[in-house]
Amino acid sequence: MADPTGFLDHERVEQPKRPRDERARDWREVYADLDPEERNRQVRVQATRCMDCGIPFCHSGGAGCPLGNLIPEWNDLVRRGEWEQASERLHATNNFPEFTGKLCPAPCESACVLAISPASGGAVAIKRVEETIASQAWESGYARPERAAAATGKKVAVVGSGPAGLAAAQQLTRAGHEVTVFERDDRLGGLLRYGIPEFKMEKKVLDRRLAQLREEGTTFVTGCEVGVDLTVEELRERYDAVVLAVGALRGRDDTATPGRELAGVHLAMDYLVPANRFCEGDGPAEIDAAGRHVVIIGGGDTGADCYGTATRQGALSVTQLDQYPQPPSTRDDDRSPWPTWPYLLRTYPVHEERGERLFAVAVKRFLGDEEGRVRGIELQKVRVEKDPGTGRRQVVPTSEEVEEVPADLVLLAIGFEGVEHMRLLDDLGLKLTGRGTLSCGTDWQTDAPGVFVCGDAHRGASLIVWAIAEGRSAAHAVDSCLTGSSDLPAPVHPT
Ligand code: SF4
User: Fold this and answer.
1) Residue from 57, 79, 112 whose mutation best tests the ligand 1 pocket (most atoms within 8 A of CB)
2) Are 430 and 332 within one domain?
3) Does 1 fall in a domain?
């Protein structure tokens, strides 16, 4: 039984970070390495704040956790110091809680009943509890490989090794299928490997989970582009089902702004991938922010990843631009209806380190030097509104005044347009939707029989928690298709 008044006795306390000057100079995770005993003591106090609500909004797929994480249950187990049981309940709904604990923006916390009023001291620190359960599980050996009780004799190919592909692969392997994951890159993990910077999640965390999947029986093939290195005919011949988890990595560009063609203006992923490869030991990054004035266009997660990376590479200045006005940072001055996510200001640890953020601004044009390199940008104050005729979003200048800002490296982090072009899709006869994604029926099956889809490739660029939820749900559908029924969970349905 939870302590219903625990939140009155204890304040929410954020996870302690390393000193900002120290962490801004290295690539290690930003959070402090607490002694596990002290870490667990602090987190037990945080879990005590959970009221075990009759209707736990944190847990529901509507506003809270898409995975249906059993948050009140494991909060209470942590409160009582029952770490192994807490790990069992956490892993019952989430294959990779250490990934979500480090990377998810936590819709569960915004949906928490205690987030309604600042007087309650803020949401339960669910993410921190989740990550600590996962850390404790690895440290104590609770995160064991789970081998299937019996083999089904069916073979499944998973294309893509990001979070959706890995979740689908683990579920299907544990259900007894022979699963092979194909990755076109030289290393596994997709965005987890080459999109997420080391300071947000050290890659040893990913490698540890990959080792678990291998021990359970999942096979991995890297450096293989399905459709090219393995034809669709070969794929069809060798596998009973195929899961497409190829992501939605086609970056949105800004070709309409004059000067886009200047050297030094790049898409965010063209910058982040080599920077992450550097951390893997692949040598200097091709695009380096050292000694440069860096301007990042786009106020989201990818922009923040560029921001922290540029800081660590030694940029002279880092500025992040957002077209939207600065949102309120607390519910005190927020007038939107509860739950508020994502309307409050999201500040990442990298924003505390250095640099600045500018809101309600847009680039009028990129300025170049005589050699065709970007040297600055012209900024204008704007507002974002809906075009009354088309209903589409439009950006309107609110002033004729223009401010010039120095910039010799500009990174476009303005979103993703969908699945990249790949021969595999052509050869399967699959077409992209108007949103650049792959559609499917209610059973996650695409128009190509026996070919399923999940994650960003289906949903469009989204949160890691949705990728895992879709991977788990697609695994249920594949298992049902291959065996006639499935005991695997299906936390979400196709959109
Ligand atoms: Fe606990 Fe908040 Fe979930 Fe209620 S909504 S059960 S207080 S975490």
Assistant:
1) 112
2) no
3) no
321 neighbors 358 (Cβ within 8 angstroms): yes
Residues 222 and 303 in one domain: no
- 209 CA to middle of ligand 1, Å? 28
Let me know whether 72 and 194 are in one domain: no
Instruction: Give me the residue label for tokens 């009140």.
Output: 72
Residue 145 domain-assigned (yes or no)? no
Over residues 137-179, the pLDDT tens digits come to 999 999 999 999 999 999 999 999 999 999 999 999 999 999 9
Does ligand 1 have an atom closer than 6 angstroms to the CB of 56? yes
Asked if 45 and 109 sit in the same domain, the reply is yes
CA diameter of the chain: 70
Buried b (16+ CB within 10 A) or exposed e, 226-250: bbeebebeebbeebbbbbbbbbbbb
CA-nearest of 439, 99, 488, 415 to 244 is: 439
Q: Do the beta carbons of residue 339 and residue 304 sit within 8 Å?
A: no
Q: Are 121 and 149 in contact (CB under 8 A)?
A: no
Evaluate if residue 238 carries a pLDDT over 90: yes
124 lines ligand 1 (CB under 6 A): yes
> Is 80 exceeded by the pLDDT of residue 116?
no
Contact 124, 75 (CB under 8 A): yes
pLDDT in tens, 87-106: 999 999 999 999 999 999 99
Residues 200 and 302 in one domain: no
Assigned domain for 172 exists = yes
Cis check: omega of the bond before 258, within 30 degrees of 0: no
90 and 183, same domain (yes or no): no
Same structural domain, 349 and 441? no
Same domain, 223 and 283: no
**Residue 38 CA to ligand 1 centre (angstroms):** 24
The count of residues in the chain is: 495
Q: Which atom of ligand 1 is nearest to the CA of 72?
A: 6
Domain that holds residue 193: 155-249+417-483
- Sort strands 155-159 and 241-244 into parallel, antiparallel or unpaired: parallel
List, in sequence order, every residue forming a beta bridge with 379; answer none if it has no partner.
363, 403
